[in-house]
Amino acid sequence: MSEQNPADQRDVPKELERVLAAEVSLGSRMRHVAVGLAGGCAAVLIAVLWATEPHPLPARTQAAFAGLIAVGLAWAAFACWVLSRRRPLFARDRVLGARLSLVVTVVTGVAGTALAAARATAAEALATALAGAALVAAAGLVLVRARSRRRELLRLRDALRQEAPRPPK
Fold first, then answer.
1. Which of 42, 82, 112, 116 lies in disulfide reach of 93, CB 3.0 to 4.6 Å?
2. Predicted confidence band at 16 (pLDDT cuts at 50, 70, 90)?
3. What is the pLDDT of residues 32-75, one digit of tens each?
4. What is the pLDDT of residue 110?
5. What angle (nearest 5°) sits at the alpha carbon of residue 144, between those of residues 143 and 148?
6. How many Å apart are CA 162 and CA 160, to the nearest integer?
7. Domains of the chain: which residue ranges?
């Protein structure tokens, strides 16, 4: 009789192991570390810049700084969440990251277009709106691909679980 850990007794098919290994690879973790550091450092830098201003900033500038700090903290929190997970995510991190990027892109595009419409010529406002629309479309495409990848991984997991023989009790 062997004294194995119950987790070791599970029969995880090799294909699923390969997929999960790519999900928690060193490269993937390093990318998330980079995202977290970039978001956190950007938030801290903007907060320090805001705090060290000698005179009160206009309300719109304060709102912009607060928004940028929130975006940086959101990316840092996202990276911390991904890196703290022990169980496989099955591309849930990709979907969440794509949603975050879509929301930030939409808000930035709308704010930039509104600002351009208020302060620039019609041609510059149109150019800003078109650039924002292109970035929103790209972020939307990333979200569609992330959802598709997640569905694919979940189908693979379910299919392999059904085919896997049950270990004897």
1. 82
2. low
3. 899 999 999 999 999 999 999 999 999 989 999 999 999 999 99
4. 94
5. 115
6. 5
7. 22-86, 88-169
- Which residue in 107, 50, 51, 97 sits closest to 74, CA to CA? 97
Using CA atoms, how far apart are residues 68 and 143, in angstroms rounded to an integer? 22
**Could you tell me the CA-to-CA distances from 27 to 22, 23, 30, 33, 161 in Å, in that order?**
9, 9, 5, 10, 27
* SS3 per-residue string spanning 79-143: HHHHHHCCCCCCCHHHHHHHHHHHHHHHHHHHHHHHHHHHHCCHHHHHHHHHHHHHHHHHHHHHH
pLDDT at residue 114 above 90? yes
